[in-house]
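Standup notes
- DV: blocked on the single-chain target, sequence here:
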Amino acid sequence: ACIESDCSLVGGEMAEMKSVYQKGDFDLAGFSVGVVEKDELIDGSKIADGDYLYALPSSGIHSNGYSLVNALLKTDPGKELDKLALLEPTKLYVKPILNLLAKPHHVTGIAHITGGGLDENIGRLLNNSVDAVVEKSKLRVLDIFKAIQSCGDIAESEMYKVFNMGIGMVVISAQPLEGEAEFYEIGRIKSGTGSVSIV
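- DV (later): unblocked, structure below
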C-alpha cells in the first residue's frame, strides 16, 4: 500500500491486548499525515449550488460493515454470500485523486465513503447553504451489497448507513470532470441547509 501510494512508513508501534486478541489473531491499523499548501486546501468551503457529484467505485465492502456480515454468517453459516467478494482488498484512491488534482480542476470537495455511508461522509463537507442530492439510479451498487441485503433482510436505509454501496470516494466539482474515465456522475449540489438525500 505504501509503495502504491508513494508513501514512506516512518514509524510503528506494537501493543499487546490479550483481552481482545486471542492466539492466532492478527490486527493491523495505521494512519497517515500529509502536508498541503494553504491555497490548495480542499475543505468544502467552496461547494456551491450547481456543483457536480462524482463517484470513484469501491472494490467491495472495504473496512466497514463486517460486524453485520459476521452476524449474518453466524446466524446462518450457509448464507449465499460470495466469501471471496467479502475478502476483496480495499481499493487505494491516492493515485486517482492526485492525478485529478494535478490537472487544472474545479474540485470543491472530496469524501472518503467509510462508516456512515454517503450521508455522513458527504455531509461532513457541506456548509449550511447547500444540500447534496445523490441519484440512486446512477449508483453502481455491487452485487455483494445486494446479496447482503437479501440474506439479512436488511432495510435499504440501513444498508446505505452501514456500507459504501459500491462508492469508495465522492468528488464534488464546480465543472464536469471531462475525460476522467474512472469517475462517474451520481448527483448534484443544490441550495439547501447542509443535508444529503439519496433519491
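- Follow-up: The beta strands are 52-57, 107-112, 130-134, 167-173, 184-191, 196-198.
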